[in-house]
UniProtKB/TrEMBL annotation:
Subunit structure, as described in the record: Interacts with COX5B; this interaction may contribute to localize PYROXD2 to the inner face of the inner mitochondrial membrane.
SUPFAM superfamilies (UniProt xref): FAD/NAD(P)-binding domain
Positions of the Amine oxidase domain: 32-162
This protein's UniProt keywords: FAD, Flavoprotein
Entry-linked InterPro entries: Amino_oxidase, FAD/NAD-bd_sf
Localization, UniProt: Mitochondrion matrix
Pfam families, alphabetized: Amino_oxidase
Species: Ceuthmochares aereus
Gene behind this protein: Pyroxd2
Protein role: Probable oxidoreductase that may play a role as regulator of mitochondrial function.
GO cellular component entries: mitochondrial matrix
Protein name per UniProt: Pyridine nucleotide-disulfide oxidoreductase domain-containing protein 2
């Protein structure tokens, strides 16, 4: 249990709760859930420019990272087809992957196919089921994809000013504006309470909020004097109590709760909002193809990691279909902006390609 680990090393509840957020991020779990300690380890085990456990902003927004990867690939002769939905994986008579068919009828032939989509989309939607072992299909269907995350993107006409550290008269970003700001994290009990509400089908009345202001470091993201605020919030169930759907009323009611919480820490925040985009778990699934809205393509619990990700005997990026590989967050070592699954999968695929 993460709670036991934190209690052993720290006394301050705000510090323990702030550390605990990285143990439950993207997970329908509380700091008291068995195995939550690993999720914290997963998020601090890496490094950035020699700084262990450090995170960073991408200049130009996260899309700039995808563009950088695309430019690097194109420089090496890669052809990129954007906005072209894949219909299914093409299989030869010998059962090997031979490319993909697009929804417009185009067939793209290749000797190897690497899928960055989730295991659920790759194997349950894009691959003929009769070509897969029944126990493998069953395992993929059983992957826990519960997600507690609702992401809210906000445009504001001024820099938020927090009671704990008010802005200077010139409204220039201060050091805390350039970091991840954790709200409603005064104690691990608060996080557990928010989690408990979601398990009963109710969005948290005092949700865990991670607030970032990327424009404080990258002014090009917003007009002068204005800012973009990114809110990563938990806990929101995928299905609301009583089978209620996430309609516009439910979305806005939850966002209002989040904004009321921020207002208590930074008076004037609500008046500064000029636009907001609310993405609940069903929205994340519909727009980005994330099963259950899960940002990691599946829970990062110990029973779904290492040799069991995405399924026992298939953690080495190869799939039951020869020539078809999994290279996204649903493969080992799981989610996070690190590219480890893709790099590992590419090495395995190249090894097989040299044998062909």
């Amino acid at each position: 249990l993460l709670g036991q680990i934190l209690d052993h090393w720290f006394e301050s509840e705000p510090l323990k709760a702030t550390l605990a957020t990285d143990a439950v991020i993207g997970a329908m779990a509380s700091p008291h859930t068995p195995g939550s300690g690993y999720v914290l380890l997963h998020h601090v085990m890496g490094e950035l420019e020699g700084q262990r456990g450090a995170w960073g902003y991408v200049a130009g927004g996260m899309g700039a990272l995808s563009q950088a990867i695309a430019r690097s690939a194109a420089a090496r002769g890669t052809h990129i087809f954007a906005e072209k939905a894949v219909c299914h994986v093409l299989l030869g008579r010998d059962g090997r992957a031979q490319g993909v068919a697009l929804q417009d009828g185009t067939e793209v032939k290749s000797k190897l196919v690497l899928s960055n989509a989730s295991p659920q989309i790759t194997f349950l939607e894009l691959t003929p089921q009769e070509r897969l072992p029944m126990d493998f299909v069953q395992r993929i269907r059983q992957v826990d994809t519960l997600s507690p995350v609702t992401k809210i993107n906000v445009a504001v006409d001024r820099l938020p000013s927090f009671l704990a550290a008010p802005n200077t008269p010139d409204n220039w970003p201060l050091p805390h504006h350039q970091c991840s700001i954790h709200l409603n994290c005064e104690s691990t009990h608060l996080l557990h309470q928010a989690f408990t509400e979601a398990t009963h089908g109710h969005p948290s009345s005092r949700p865990m909020i991670e607030l970032c202001i990327p424009s404080a470091l990258d002014p090009g993201l917003a007009p002068e004097g204005c800012h973009v605020v990114s809110l990563f919030t938990q806990y929101t169930p995928s299905v609301l109590a009583g089978g209620q759907s996430w309609d516009e009323q439910a979305r806005n009611a939850y966002a209002d709760t989040v904004f009321d919480c921020i207002e208590a820490y930074a008076p004037g925040f609500k008046a500064s909002v000029i636009g907001r985009d609310i993405l609940t778990p069903p929205d994340m699934e519909r727009i980005f193809g994330l099963p259950g809205g899960n940002i990691f393509h599946g829970g990062m619990s110990l029973d779904q990691l290492y040799f069991a990700r995405p399924a026992p005997s298939y953690s080495g990026y190869r799939s039951p279909i020869p020539g078809l590989y999994l290279c996204g967050s649903g493969a080992h070592p799981g989610g996070g902006v690190m590219g480890a699954a893709g790099r590992n999968a590419a090495r395995v695929a190249l090894e097989d390609f040299r044998r062909l």
